[in-house]
Structures are given as C-alpha cells and as structure tokens.
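Fold this complex.
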Amino acid sequence: MTETAAHQIAWVYDLNKCIGCQTCSVACKVLWTRDEGEKHEWWCSVNTQPGLGTPKGWETMGGGADPETGAPKVGHQPTREEFGGGFDFNYYEVFYGGTAGKAHLEPQGSRENRWAMNWDEDQGAGEWPNSYYFYLPRMCNHCTNPVCVQACATGALSKREDGLVLRDEDACLGDRFCMEACPYKKIYFNYERHVAQQCIGCFPRIEAGVAPACVRQCPGRAVFVGWLEDETSAVSRLVNEWKVALPLHGEAGTKPNVYYVPPLSPYRLKEDMSIDYEQPRIPPEYLESLFGPEVHGALATVKGEMEKVREGGSSELMKTLIAYKWQELLGPFTRDPVELTPSAAG
Amino acid sequence: MKVSTMKGGAADLASPGSAAWNSVVGESVSLGAIPAAAQPTAYIREAWAKRAYASTSSAKVAAVSDGDRLYVRIEWPDDAKANGEFPDGAGVVFPGAANSAVETLGSASAPVGLWCWQAGRDEALDIESRGPGVFRRQAGDGVKAAAALAGGKWTVVLSGPAAAAKGGKLGVVVWNGSNEERAGLGAVSKSWLGLEQA
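Structure:
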C-alpha cells in the first residue's frame, strides 16, 4: 500500500559538481550521529562509483518493490561487517607514544575484511588512460512508496505530510525488516540501543525553515532541496520540467525522492593519446544501470544547454545548475540556523 | 502447571542457576510456528513463506511466586550456530483479554502481555502484543530477566508483578537468533498453560 504525502520534500544532487569532499557526510555526522552506538552510522555518505559502496555490495542486496504491482521484494539485511567502520584509532600511540616516524594512524583490530564508508574511494574502473570514476552522495530517499514503512511490524516508521519518512525510536524494537526491505540499504542498526536508524531529513531544521545540513554545508553548491510539487522550485524544474535529474535505481520500485543530475564524461583517449570525441570514458550502459534509460536524454539536454551558453546564448537550466547565489539551493528553507534558539530541552 | 509460593527467596529465584529452583517442578511445553500467512506485513510474509522458522520445538517451563512477584524459568537447547546480528530471546506470554490467543501472540482486539528477554540486552522488555510481532513497549512495571548459557542450554528467568498471572494461564515464546528469528517468527506455545496454586 503506497502512502501518499500532501507535500514531498526532495533533494537533487548534481554529480557534475560533487567533488567527494564529504562535507555533507560530516555535517550530518556531527549533527545527528555522535551518540551511543552511532559511530559506524553515516546517514549521508559519499562513495566513488563504480564501487562496492556502503554497505559493501549494497546494489546486489535486493529489497524494493515490483514497480507494477508494488509487491515487496525480499532483501538482505546488511551486517555490521558489511557496513564496517566505527573504528577505534591508535591516537595515543601516534601522538604521545614516542613512536614518531614509526607508528602511523590506523584503525585498530583485525585487518581482515576491513571495510567502511568510502573505503574504495577513487578506485573507480577502467584502464589508464581511460580510467574513470565519479562521486555519489547517498542518503535515505524518503520514498513515495516506502517499503521500509510497509515492512515494519511495530508501526515504528511513518511517512509524514511533508514526505519525510521518520522512525519513532521508542516504537522500534530492532526487528530490522525495514533494513531488509530497503533497496538502498541506507538504514543502519544501532547495536547499543537496539534500534534501526536513518536520515531524518533534518526535520527539526525543516520545521524551522532551515535547510538540511547536507544541503546548507555543501561547498560545491551541488545539492538542492525543495518541494517537488512546487513547479517553480529548482528541484521540480530539474526533475519534472527539464528532466535532467533522475532517481537512482528507479527500477527498485520505491519512487525515491533523492534525484541526481548524472555525470558528464570526459572523452576517451586513443592509443596515440588523441581525444576520441565519439567515445565517453564513462560507459553509457553503466550510467543506464544506475539511472535508467532516461539518463541518455538527461545528458543530451545538459550538453545541449552547455553548448547553447558556449555559443553566447542563455540557459535557464545552466543558471539553475550553476547556482550563482548559493541560497538558490535551499528552496524555501533559507533561514540561517544561527537564528534558531536552542529549545529548553537542549 | 503448579505455581508454588516461596516466601523470602526472591533474590535466589531471580538467578537461573539458583538451588531455589531445584524443588520446583516444571513442565515441557510444545512450541510451534505462527504461519507465514498470519504474519503482519506483506514483506515478512514474502520473506518467510519458504523459510523454516520457530526452530525450537519445546521448552521446559517452571513458575514460582513469592507473593509479590512471579518468576518464570524457561529452559531450551541452544542452537549454537553463529549469527552476529540477531540475538536469542525468550518471552512469557499472559492473556490481556478473556479470549486472547497465545498461539498468535494476541490480536488487535485481544492483546497479550509479553515479558521479553534478549541475549546481550541489559533490560527486559514489557510489551503489549497485538499479533505476531505487532509489539509495543508498555510502561515497564519492574519486569526483569537473568539468563545463563551452559551445557548447550539456555536457562532464563523472567520476573514481574505477580498480578500478571491473574488470568490463570501463561505461554512462552523462544526466538532462535541464529535463524534470524525475531518478532512473530519465534516458536510459540501451542496453547495456554493453566496455572494453579501448589
């Protein structure tokens, strides 16, 4: 059963502007996941594509729903080893242990099967000189067809009127059917508190008119937020009008509300190192596997608009993607967080 | 099942290995699965339609009251297969209504109460269950648990207010964590176990 929201908040990440700096990840981390049992949790994370990502191999773990019938598809619950991370480091040994030049900072514990968020950074694929990679920020997709909500037996998850999918942690008993059902594997388990946890869309900020931390802190001006049903919003125009922002693995059937402007590709180099203007370095079929067949049209539109500007013309799409004023990324959530007064509850 | 009253032995009764339990006669309880078709969400029904669960076939149950608190001891063989994700667990089920069904862990209109223990979890849970896995924590009223794993066998003592037994019957549920059993996938008493004063 699909739950519908009166509004739908949506994100658009422009992968041509994401530099993989993890500022969104860290902005989220310092705000939301510094408590007990949350060390390994990165509600927002950036991984290199192609790559195994986080949790390791998430794209092969199943879940989601049949796009036509809505019937759930069985998935795998990512384990703590597959998420990895949450390391303790040898800070004392390196900084105070008298081992200067010998000891180096590294995660403690076994080196076998070590994994973490962004573990395969910049490995990518392809052979020199035609190797390639790009960055893919990921978070809970606050899906329109939230299979996590539907899978939960305790009613701990719900979709709010603003479209955010939120969890009542008091009602969550750690059964983790949501983690199995989610095709994006962006739900973590807190092994200390025995509850599952995921991106909350910075709902306290949204309610106060402040953009989510991942958006506001992005130094690359690479991510937009706004109401999808507002035809004048940047997210709506990018998704619905220009159709250059696409869902990730839309075939998973959950109607995600995080969209991506797919990456343009440099051209391949021939054996004599001259440029082959006919061949993109990122295989189009790979991009299609992530963003569906619509990716070709999206890339053609972006290229066409870029060309128009190069020839001296004007492009609303290019102006939007460039975001000359960074506040344009924030949709209606333009309030400065320093204006907020901490609540009495702290 | 006879419930004897043992005054002054509360501290000992809370311990699974206590000699205070030596004189208590328990009963073997037959456990079964709640059918996949009765599970509460389409996802769970689909995921477990062809998987075996409720893998513990029976448990030994004994109960003692000290007048204020009821102590229920549950013993069952441990499945020693490793699973780092899901814990073993056990629970005591009490009727919440005259027509509450133990074999489904209650229903929307006739819930059951559930004292719940999970391996590795410090606190016991006091739950209202309205069907298999349709659990909601309720304000805990002093439900406690202690467990011991020895000789390939779990021994768990759950205790709580003696008033929980006022319905005159109880049931048990056992979750085998290595088989990813949780929520409504545990092995549940097939029928209520009547309680009578020893």
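Residues 98 and 110 of chain B are 8 Å apart (CA to CA).
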